[in-house]
User: Fold RING-type domain-containing protein from Nematostella vectensis.
Amino acid sequence: MAQAASRTLQSLHSFHENIQDEISCPICYEDFEEPKCLPKCAHNICRECLLGIIEKAQLERFECPICRAIVAVPKDGIDGFPTNSLLVRLVENAPGRKEKQAIKQAMTDYLNTKAFAEKSIKELRVQVGVESSKKAITLRSEIAKHADEMVAKIRSEERSLCVEVEMFLDGYSMKAMSILENAEMNLNHTFDEGANFVKQANMALQGKAEDLIDAKDCIVGQFKELSKDLDMSHIDGVMNYKIEYIKGQVEGQFLGKVSASGLKLLEGPKTQTDISIGDISYGKKWDCFSIPGKPTSFSVSPKSGDIAILCADDREVYRYDMSGKLCRHYDFNQGILTDVAFSVDDCILVTDTANNRVLFIRADGSSHMNIFIFDTNIRFISVDSRGRLILTSCPKDGKGRACILVFSPSKIFSFMFGEETLTNPSNRALFHNGSFLVVDDDGKGIKVFDDEGQFMRTLNLGFIVSSIAIDLKVPESFIAVSENDRISKVTTRSWAVLKTISTVTEPIKLLHINRKGRFVSIIEKNGQHFCLCKDSI
Assistant:
């Protein structure tokens, strides 16, 4: 009984396949819309394909593409070939006909919507550029006008203050001159008295010795009195006046400030990530704080400045703010965690090599979503300035392959590259200044790819590179960290080493550079790990 049922199912399946062959055009393999029958050999070809054959032949005869029989073209052309009505009815009643039409219609609608969206994006690009230019011109004009007004007010205030200075100095000069004139009159009177007494003293010096002895004390005392009258200290005060300029205190901004709202999509797909553009507050500056466990990877949020530290052996992730305060602790029960990063919307991303996936964790600890990647061995992750996810796959135990996978900010796969070039990437791939940078060959070189993933060159810096970081303050360069406790700065213009700094006193295990240009690093001292933040190294 079971064998009979099986034979029946096989017969039905074979029947459906034969029916599908009969209702499909042998040229384009699409279901017949208007099948035309060739009278000589009775083969059926759809109208569009038959029209193409006739136009290509450009003769009154052509070969049947199926059996090579010579077929004459009727006088009235393509319409002279009879339409196979039986085949038309068979197509209309064929299994899955309606479903195919529905799928084709849905596909057509999608392509039309896609074309409209692309057109809208192009038009909006132009409109945004024009409107931005207009607004920029208007704002610059307003700022310049306000600046001119402020300059005019400042000049007016300057003239007023200078008038006050002149009035003060004029009044003071008159008073000082009066004091000096009185002092000069007193001095002249003292000079006259002194001249007379000098004559008397000279006469005494020429007199008898016994008279001089008696007059000595009187003469010396008189000269001392005259000297006191010549003391000028009592008029030194004419220069001890105080006049100074006290700068006015300007509240708030001197000219004002530019206020701009962040860019936010008001409506759109729920999978769209809203990105806030504006100033970033990193909180107060800090120098160092200790880290529990053994950190294997860390990342700095481009939005909040928070720091995520992964301790892979304990399956734990710690989230700190820029002041060094522990904000959150995440504990994972399973998986092999290998790297951590921040998305543009401040979610923590964790790679799980055991399950070949990327975990998305919100700040409150809830799981946002997961990305599963097959036929690879995901080991590292980074997020570029565009919000794209850059995953690094490394072969292990004969599984996976060496390649880089790029996902859009909305977590949609974009493209993959590096399969024919990479051998064994040893750290996260980074995108910087139009190029992908991948530490390969266990750190022996850095492979450089362009924006589309085309291989460009290999950088051999002469040392084993443990990791690389992007110097955001200098867009044309990046930082390569050596395993020999040194840091080298490399320029992307000539791909040459600009300078090398030794870090023997503070051996750096991991390094990141935040958007403020500050160096955030993981160091180890006496078996204890610390997170260190400096303005420079």
User: Anything to note?
Assistant: Residues 263-286 have pLDDT under 50 and may be disordered.
